[in-house]
Design a protein that fits this description.
single chain, Helix Hairpins, D-amino Acid Aminotransferase, Chain A, domain 1, OB fold (Dihydrolipoamide Acetyltransferase, E2P), 9-stranded antiparallel sheet, disordered N terminus
Length: 732
């Protein structure tokens, strides 16, 4: 419907009402009222109106669902009613004791003349959240924090499509809804697949992913990750009579369009409560999101208030936690997968087994050092963690109920004819030479990686093509893994990066591919044409050159104006900061002079004396020369978009240092922070080693933090990082 120029306010109000109604129908009732295309068209019209008429801005507008302006930082807010943690129990017997103790305390009070009813509901494995509505408007969404003060993340909560931003006028003036923010299993899998495609570390479980999403300063990033919310309780409510029981509260919230955590059971009978807990253990895997237990609470709010709380937890509620599901199956064989850089990863192939609601056949074994490591698990000496042999009975668990992994081997069940895993001595695909890291010269260190060094390896070519077309590299829309595999299964040549830019010569054959229509093909070819203009840094990052990732490719592009300058550079110019640490004789051998380099020469390219020779050799190899010549002839831009005439000497706390970022930071996403560190004279790396200067550790830092501590590397938490940035003149 066209907008009448004299009635923008009326049309804006009309569009907001239509879109909110559509959101409620889609998310709350699962009954869409309009096609996605129509919704998107109306949303675009509303966004245009709001941009043209800023006086009509409304923080509750449906346009805010897809992200507004990024915030400068998080504001701490105090909870009017503390958000306390819940005590846990893991055994039915201890749960029964809690039930008896709670019932006895209520009886002894003499305040109640009826048997207490308890509610059982799912314990969502997410991030606790408090939503505060005033006069029906969502005004604050605050994390639990320390239970008394949390961070205001309203900008990200507004992006949750299922959550109403305004409630009817009939609700209490103040209504605080407590609940859980989480990611569905499908959203988590999609998010991790994108992370791996981008070369980032995947999240270990949906809860960490949800927590990291909530800490984004830019709400558009949260909107892209499809967060969900369910209500499971209350905070401050200005009208005590509005809801007097937990079950009644949940019904009222559901009627308002708020997603709720529906009770599994409401009962006064202990046996019925136990039966509900046990039955839910089997049903929880069908919910589509992570659930790690059942919460049991008194139904009556007056009874809850009479029991009160300790300094840590309410006395009227307990969480029954289910143990991590573990099962056993038999290892049939080990496959050897070759990645884009030639890294070979062993993958277990097992007899199919049901685990946490899904059939599992495969699990990564990480590396061959783990396969041959005969250490035992501390809780079960009979279960070797990684001394894995064909025919073994292995323990399987799921990390965060999502990712299957081999937790150990049942040694007492090992058959006499069990065979050690055959670790490849040559590439399993091309039979090429392998490089093993570390060399293990002392005979004791377990290897961490095997790499095929043949750049023409077919397996590497496939993975490199997928990587090359990825979002953070050449960003070719429509050329994903499935399309690449489809094309490579035909007679259309797709073996080199240059072949991608020749696909326009095979339009007829491309149209024969499954699900490839005229429009999809046009978009694919347009994406390929756009990719020609990405520049030198994106091209180098996309080629899968060993030791040349995103940060190193940008550093090289800052140093060299174009490919010809890069190819003309002697080896020492690829590693100038390393040259200054060499002896006079070594410097004279490389540069022709024993003197240290001048500041104007000291561009940190991210390469050192151990890595630069490999990169230099590849750049001057016949294969690389042919690739570059073909790309140039096809019109691919080989100039640098980041070239700087002068080196960035940087701030003292950052210049010349190698940084590794791990965990989730509230203030920065990983890529922008990496670029910031480089602008200050530092280098951002993806892995911890003895060359790492500083590890920046955010929330949920894992193995990288452990390794850094073992190596004695300096660790900065987020406050330390921000303090150093401020000292360098950067306002975080």
């Amino acid at each position: 419907m066209p907008t009448h120029p004299s009635k923008p306010a009326a049309r804006t109000a009309e569009l907001r009402a239509i879109l909110e109604e559509a959101n409620t129908a889609y998310y709350t009732h699962a009954r869409p009222t309009m096609p996605d295309k129509e919704f998107d068209t109306l949303l675009a019209e509303l966004a245009s109106l709001e941009a043209t008429h800023p006086e009509l801005d409304d923080p509750n507008s449906p346009t805010r669902r897809v992200g507004g302006a990024a915030i400068d930082g998080f504001i701490p807010r105090q909870h009017r009613v503390p958000m306390l943690s819940i005590d846990n129990t893991y055994e039915i017997a201890t749960f029964a004791e809690w039930h008896a103790r709670t019932t006895k305390a209520l009886t002894a009070s003499g305040l109640f003349d009826h048997a207490p009813a308890f509610v059982v509901d799912p314990k969502i494995d997410g991030v606790a959240m408090s939503l505060r509505y005033e006069q029906g408007q969502l005004v604050h969404a605050v994390t639990r924090g320390d239970g008394r003060t949390g961070d205001d993340v309203t900008h990200n909560i507004r992006t949750i499509g299922a959550l109403p931003l305004r409630l009817p006028a009939s609700v209490p003036n103040v209504l605080e809804i407590r609940g859980e923010v989480f990611l569905s299993n499908a959203s988590f899998a999609e998010m991790n697949a994108q992370a791996e495609a981008d070369g980032d570390e995947p999240f270990m479980n949906p809860r960490n992913a949800a927590a990291g999403t909530l800490k984004q300063l830019d709400p558009s990033r949260a909107a892209a990750r499809s967060l969900s919310f369910v209500a499971h309780g209350k905070g401050e409510i200005s009208d005590d009579t509005w809801a007097t029981t937990h079950a009644g509260l949940i019904d009222k919230l559901a009627n308002l369009g708020v997603p709720v955590n529906r009770p599994i059971a409401v009962s006064t009978d202990l046996r019925e409560l136990i039966a509900a807990i046990e039955a839910f253990d089997k049903a929880r895997h069908t919910l589509g999101h992570a659930v790690d237990g059942a919460v049991v609470r008194l139904n009556d709010f007056a009874q809850q208030a009479s029991l009160g709380s300790t300094s840590k937890s309410p006395r009227w509620v307990v969480a029954f936690k289910y143990p991590a599901e573990r099962t056993t199956t038999r290892l049939l064989r080990v496959e050897h997968q070759v990645g884009k850089t030639g890294k070979i990863t062993p993958r277990a192939v097992m007899e199919p087994v049901l685990l946490a609601g899904t059939i599992v056949r495969h699990a990564t074994l990480h590396n061959y050092g783990r396969v041959r490591d005969a250490s035992t698990t501390p809780d079960d000496p009979a279960a070797s963690r990684t001394d894995i042999r064909l025919g073994d009975t292995v323990y399987l668990e799921k990390a965060g109920e999502i990712i299957p992994y081999v937790a150990g081997v049942l040694l007492t069940a090992r058959p006499k004819d069990a065979q050690p895993v055959d670790i490849p001595s040559t590439c399993p695909v091309c039979n090429g030479q392998l490089e093993v890291e570390p060399p293990g010269t002392d005979g004791t260190s377990a290897e961490t990686q095997r790499t095929c060094v043949n750049p023409e390896c077919p397996a590497q070519i496939r993975e490199k093509l997928i990587w090359f077309a990825g979002r953070k590299q050449m960003d070719i829309d429509g050329l994903g893994q499935e399309t690449i595999d489809q094309i490579r299964a035909t007679t259309i040549p797709l073996h080199t990066f240059a072949d991608i830019f020749r696909l326009k010569d095979h339009t007829h054959a491309l149209l024969q591919l499954e699900r490839m229509g005229d429009k999809k093909l046009a978009n694919l070819l347009a994406g390929i044409e756009s990719a020609k203009q990405r520049g030198l840094a994106r091209l180098l990052a996309g080629m899968g050159i060993r030791y040349v990732g995103d940060s190193t490719s940008r550093a090289l592009a800052k140093r060299f104006a174009n490919l010809n300058d890069l190819l003309a550079a002697p080896l020492w110019r690829l590693m100038p900061t390393a040259v200054n640490t060499m002896s006079k004789a070594e410097r004279a051998h490389l540069t022709g002079s024993p003197n240290k380099l001048t500041p104007d020469d000291l561009y940190d390219t991210g390469l050192g004396k151990d890595t630069a020779p490999t990169v230099h050799a590849y750049l001057h190899s016949p294969a690389a020369r042919e690739t570059f010549n073909e790309l140039a002839s096809l019109g691919v831009d080989l100039t640098s978009h980041e070239f700087s005439q002068a080196p960035a000497h940087g701030a003292p706390a950052f210049a010349g240092k190698t940084f590794v970022i791990t965990g989730t930071l509230a203030t920065y996403e990983r890529d922008p922070l990496s670029r910031l560190l480089e602008s200050l004279g530092g280098k951002a790396s993806g892995s911890v080693s003895s060359k790492t200067s500083v590890l920046i550790a955010g929330d949920s830092a894992g193995s990288k933090l452990t390794k850094a501590q073992e190596l004695g590397i300096t660790v900065w938490d987020e406050p330390t990082l921000l303090a150093n940035l401020r000292a360098a003149g950067v306002k975080p």
